[in-house]
Amino acid sequence: MIEFNKCAVGKVIRKIRKEKHLSQEVFSGLAGLARTHIAMIESGAKQANFETIWRIANAFDIPPHKLVEMIENEIKSPTKVEL
C-alpha cells in the first residue's frame, strides 16, 4: 500500500505547471482556485482534497486518474524536484 505524501502532490503539480510554462497566477485562474491555495499545495503546507485534484487535473487538461497516477509514481520513487 502507498502512504499518502502531500509533498509529493505539490512536487508533481509544480513540475507539470512549470512544464506547461504557467505561472501560479495564470494556473490558479484556469483551475478556479486562489493562487495562495496553489502555492500552499505546491509547498506541501496544504493538502488537496479530491475536488481540488479534479480541478487541477482539468486545468492541466489531463484526466484526474492520470494526475493521481503521476503522484503515486512520485511517492514510489521520488525525484529531485526543486520547490
What is this structure's SSE topology?
Elements: H1 6-19, H2 24-31, H3 35-43, H4 50-60, H5 64-76
Provide an overview of this structure.
The chain has 83 residues and is mostly helical. The protein is 66% helix and 0% strand. It is built from five helices and no strands. Helix 1 (6-19) crosses helix 3, helix 2 packs across helix 3 and helix 4 packs across helix 5. The mean pLDDT is 92.
Unreliable stretches covering 5 or more consecutive residues:
none
How large a portion of the residues is in β-strands, by DSSP E?
A: under 5%
* Overall 3D form: globular
CATH C-level label: Mainly Alpha
Number of domains: 1
- Structural class of the secondary structure composition? mainly alpha
Q: What's the name of the CATH homologous superfamily?
A: lambda repressor-like DNA-binding domains
Fill in the CATH topology. Answer: 434 Repressor (Amino-terminal Domain)
Report the biggest beta sheet as strand number plus sense, adding barrel if it closes.
none
The N- to C-terminal Cα distance equals: 26 Å
Corresponding CATH architecture? Orthogonal Bundle
Helix count, per DSSP? 5
Number of strands: 0
Mean pLDDT comes to 92
| Order of secondary-structure elements | HHHHH
Overall helicity = 55-70%
- Kindly provide the radius of gyration, computed on alpha-carbon positions and rounded to a whole number of angstroms: 12 Å
Q: How would you briefly describe this protein structure?
A:
With 83 residues, the protein is mostly helical.
